[in-house]
Amino acid sequence: MAEESFYDKVYEIARLIPYGRVTSYGAIANVLGTKGTARMVGYAMGHCGGIHPPVPAHRVVNSQGMLTGRFHFPSPNLMQQMLENEGVEVENDRVKNFKKLLWDPAKEL
């Protein structure tokens, strides 16, 4: 049996993010035991289009709650629209109440 790739592990964690919540690239890296690889998590999110089961990449933001991955979506506004459809408020490309909405997989799993 083939070993799971880093991207596969990232996608597994991202699929666990609850509806209406967000997490950060760094939080995913941390729970995988690869602290300091937030950028690699970002690369994984940028390549998850068309993966099945789908990966809710719109729920992954930077450590300040900024929608830094928005340009990886078909439209730069789509990430914000998807979050807002889940009740997440976004202002100036940043999740409002980020600390309240942050889902930390290291604490939740």
TrEMBL record:
Coiled coil: none annotated. Pfam families: DNA_binding_1 (PF01035). One of its GO terms (biological process) is DNA repair. Residues 6-88 form the Methylated-DNA-[protein]-cysteine S-methyltransferase DNA binding domain. One of its GO terms (molecular function) is methyltransferase activity. It comes from the Bacteria. The keyword Secreted does not apply. Keywords: DNA damage. InterPro entries: ATL_DNA_repair (IPR052520), MethylDNA_cys_MeTrfase_DNA-bd (IPR014048), MethylDNA_cys_MeTrfase_DNAb (IPR036217), WH-like_DNA-bd_sf (IPR036388). This is Methylated-DNA-(Protein)-cysteine S-methyltransferase DNA binding. It comes from Mucilaginibacter paludis DSM 18603.
